[in-house]
Design brief:
By secondary structure, this protein is of the alpha/beta class. It is built from 6 helices and 5 strands. It has a single domain, classed as 3-Layer(aba) Sandwich (Ribose 5-phosphate Isomerase B, Chain: A), CATH 3.40.1400. A 5-stranded parallel β-sheet has the order 2-1-3-5-4, sandwiched between helices. The structure holds D-ribose.
Length: about 150
């Protein structure tokens, strides 16, 4: 069960900047503790520079969950999923946010800042953080995700 005292890192490139700022503001008023990993403006930047630090931190267990954004969510999720202990899920609606926790035990939600409305994105994060992994057959499946080369 998610504990609201936990700090959640959130980071984006310029494509996700506006939604990141909105989420930090909205989720803070709901009692979540967010740590902003940048970027800090709409000036064009390279998303891996902002996503790697969050994925690394989740990978080594500094945080249980993370929130990452870029314009499409694709580059952010590709970057984060390079880490063996990260399961980053690109989500665009409420059902995806719920299912990826129930079935994939995703620990990072990747949001497409240019393709979701901000209110839905806020609800998606809320659902993501407050849905527990089902385990059972889904545990067997996520255990088969890593490659050993
Ligand atoms: C930036 O224009 C855009 O390419 C980036 O935010 C993201 O969508 C990449 O996957």
């Amino acid at each position: 069960m998610f504990d609201k005292n936990q700090v959640i890192p959130v980071g984006s490139d310029h494509g996700g900047f506006e939604l990141k700022e909105y989420l930090i503001q909205k989720l803070s008023t709901k009692g979540y503790r967010l740590k902003d990993y940048g970027t800090s403006s709409i000036v064009s930047v390279d998303y891996p520079d902002f996503i790697h630090p969050i994925a690394k931190a989740v990978n080594i267990g500094m945080f249980d969950f993370g929130i990452i954004l870029c314009g499409s969510g694709q580059g952010a999720s590709m970057t984060a999923n390079k880490y063996p202990n990260v399961r980053a899920a690109l989500c665009w609606d409420l059902e995806q946010a719920k299912l990826t926790r129930l079935h994939n035990n995703a620990n990072i939600i990747a949001l497409p800042g240019r393709f979701v409305d901000f209110e839905t994105a806020t609800k998606m994060v809320d659902i993501f953080l407050n849905t527990d992994f089902e385990g059972g057959r889904h545990k067997n499946r996520i255990d088969k995700i890593p490659v050993s080369e």
